[in-house]
Amino acid sequence: MLERRSQLTLILGAPRSGTTWLAKIFDSHPQVLYRHEPDLAMPDAAIPKVCRIEDVPHYRDAAGAFVEALIGTRNMKAAGKLPLFAKVGDPPLARTARTGLVLALQVAQMLLRHGHHTPFVLPRHFGWNKGVQPHVVIKSISSLGRAGLLAASVPDARIILLVRNPLEQIASRLRGYAHRKMRPFRLVDDLLTTAEAQRFGLTPTSIGRLSQVEQMAWEWAIMNEKAVAELSPHANARVVRYTDLVLDASRKASDLFTFAGLPWHKAAEHFIRSSTSYHGPDLYFHVRKRGQEPLHKWRGALSADDQARILAVVGDTAAGRLYPELLTGG
Question: Is the peptide bond before 184 cis (omega within 30 degrees of 0)?
Answer without folding.
Answer: no
